[in-house]
Amino acid sequence: MTQTPAPESAPEPAAGTHQVREEADAALADCVLCGEPTEYPASTRGATYCPVCEWQEAQRTACSG
How many angstroms separate the Cα of 56 from the Cα of each of 8, 46, 49, 65? Predict the structure, then answer.
């Protein structure tokens, strides 16, 4: 009977990384279309979109012309 090796686990995040991520999440800009949090900081200038609205907007503008 052959034994398969155990899968390697992902490396543990550095100490304090989780806290930094929580602080960054708290300062995210809201999407101008649906109000969901975006991937951009609140200090970003201009219209900010969440990933879904950003993709939909790209589809609308790519096919217009």
Answer: 37, 18, 10, 16
Following DSSP, what letter does each residue of the chain receive, concatenated?
Answer: ---PPPPPPPPPPPTTHHHHHHHHHHTEEEPTTT--EEEEETT--S----HHHHHHHHHHHHH--
Per-residue pLDDT of the chain (65 residues; tens, 9 = 90+): 566 666 666 565 555 544 455 554 568 999 999 999 999 999 999 999 999 999 999 999 987 66
Domain-wise residue ranges, the chain: 22-63
Question: Which two three-digit tokens encode residue 7?
Answer: 């899968």
